[in-house]
Design goal:
Helices cover 18% and strands 34% of the residues. It is α+β, with helices and mostly antiparallel strands and 211 residues long.
């Protein structure tokens, strides 16, 4: 029953009986806003005039590379003991490589920086026998973190109709199914599904940032 609007930016949010949201697709109204805006979660909260949870965007770079010979695609994810890079097979003899960077950034559509690509390749070649012959793709994303680096789920007492779903940081892919089940149950005022009933949600609730 959802109506999905893509590529329509939010330009204003205000209260008035309900939430009134100005977008490039026209005005919308809602009883509850779910702030799942990733690196822009803080900007959305400021726009809505609600207490802001400090969500910091940190840039992470990934490069798809080819190496001399053919990389062993049966290898697991490999992480340097000092945390300076990680590499994983991606099939077709290719590798995904990251300098494991966490560079403070601003909310934006970011791209991989040349220095981060170079650092990743240098660290890989110093630690392994692989020699990079080609950079085929490179991209970057903004992983968003709360001050305690834990997910932020729920609504503050001062704004019960503004629901936070942010701060997934670097483990969003692993936790997304369980986090989504928990958040959906909270939004709908029902018990969490049996699959996640064992999860202690206290460390993730937004109330820990309440004034």
């Amino acid at each position: 029953g959802a109506h999905l609007l893509l590529r329509h930016g939010v330009t204003g949010i205000r209260r008035g009986g309900a939430w009134h949201i100005d977008t490039s697709a026209g005005p919308l109204t809602a009883d509850i806003i779910v702030n799942a805006a990733g690196a822009r979660a803080g900007e959305v909260a400021v726009m809505a005039g609600v207490p802001v949870i400090p969500i910091t965007p940190l840039r992470r770079t990934v490069v798809q590379i080819a190496v001399e010979g053919e990389a062993d695609t049966g290898l697991p994810l490999l992480i340097a003991l000092d945390g300076s890079f990680y590499v994983k097979p991606e099939g077709n003899g290719r590798l995904w490589l990251s300098p494991h960077d966490e560079t403070p950034d601003v909310p934006r559509d970011c791209a991989a920086e040349e220095i981060d690509i170079a650092l990743a390749i240098d660290r890989l070649e110093r630690a392994t026998h692989w020699r990079v012959t080609k950079v085929e793709r490179a991209w970057a994303g903004l992983r968003n973190f709360a001050p305690d680096r834990m997910p932020v789920i729920g609504a503050l007492p001062a704004a019960p109709d503004f629901f936070w779903f942010a701060g997934q940081g670097g483990w969003g892919i692993q936790t997304a199914p369980a986090a989504a089940m928990i958040a959906a149950a909270m939004l709908e005022g029902r018990s969490v599904p049996a699959e996640v009933a064992h999860v202690n949600t206290a460390p993730y609730l937004v109330e820990r940032f309440a004034p």
